[in-house]
Each structure stands twice: as structure tokens, then as C-alpha cells.
Amino acid sequence: MRVNEAEIVISAVSKTQYPSDPIPEIALAGRSNVGKSSFINTMIQRKNLARTSGKPGKTQTLNFYIINKSFHFVDVPGYGYAKVSKAERTRWGKMMDEYFGEREQLVSAVLVVDLRHEPTDEDCMMYDYFKYHDLPVTIIATKMDKVKKGKRPAQKKLIREVLEVDEKDPLILFSAETSEGKDEAWKSLRSHLKM
Ligand code: GDP
Q: What does this protein do (predicted)?
């Protein structure tokens, strides 16, 4: 996939701010610091459009990016910070339900996990949440450059098992350092965008 144009449309806190263009959307979620911004930036060939290393405690927003004028990536705020207050957690949940419960043009989701680690309970909850909303999910196991080749198949199997991944959902090994997995990731996303 050749990305010629990618820009941020809005950082939305409520649904009145969502872009109204009727184009398909893909939502991306992952634990804070897992490498989600790096994944987005690699996919759209930008160094720093999606902000990396977001700090805890800053305003949680849904960031809409328009790609090639034809679809949106929606960057969901990272989860899994231990120090987030209960009030912030509640606000996050409300924002998620408002988006995932109602957004008509949402066609698919991406869950970014770390190939080195067993998925956390929150990763499992996020995957289940997507499946509850009937979304096809592409699982990106990133930072593959940090895992020796010989160890990758076992890590891949472990992640599929712990998340209880539906057999129709692909798990793709990825590296933002080397761009490995990028073509395969686009292939999966394009199938949902019907492009
Ligand atoms: P986010 O909080 O999920 O958006 O995570 P970031 O994209 O900011 O990445 C967190 C840290 O992991 C940064 O220091 C990145 O440079 C690093 N990182 C992200 N992806 C990769 C990868 O594929 N390989 C390696 N080696 N480091 C990565």
C-alpha cells in the first residue's frame, strides 16, 4: 500500500467531534508503550505523525487520521498504566463505548501486542471487547527485531493461545525498526477496507 497523504483530522473527546465523512475506519488499540504509534508511523511512512510515548495523565482522546483521502485510522488511547485514577478509567470506558457502540463506518480493529511478552489481562479484555462488537481483528505482535528467530514461533503460539484468537483473525509479526510485517499488515487491513 502506497500512502501518499496522511494527516490528523481531529483529537476527539466526544462523538460530536467525530469526522462526518462516510469513509471506512480502522481502530487501533494497545497497551501504553507497546509500540502502537511506531506501528502507525511505519504503516503510513511518517516519522512522527502519531505521537510516540504518550505520557499518562494527559487528556485521553480518539485521534482520527485520514489516509489517502479514503479511510481513517482511529488511534485509541493506550491502556494499562497502573497509576490511572478510577475517574480516568471510567472516562476512558465511556469514550470507548460511545465510539465502538455506535460508529457505523468502523470496519475492523488492530490490536498491538509485544511479541516478547505474554498478553496481559487487559490485552485479553481489549480483544474480547472487539469481538463483542463483531469486529474482525488484526493482531500485530510488534518488536519482533527483539526476539531471536528461533523463538518467534513459540511466542506467536503463546499469544494466540492466551488471547484465544479467533482462527479467522491473523496474527502478524512486525517491527517498526525494520518494517518487517508491513506488507502483510497492509494486506490484512486492505481486505477489510475492500481496497
Ligand atoms: P506507544 O505508547 O504504544 O505509542 O509506543 P511507542 O510507539 O511510543 O513505542 C514505545 C517504545 O518502543 C519507543 O521507545 C519505541 O522506539 C520502541 N519501539 C516501538 N516499536 C518498536 C519495534 O518494532 N522495535 C523496537 N526495537 N523498538 C520499538
A: Necessary for normal cell division and for the maintenance of normal septation.
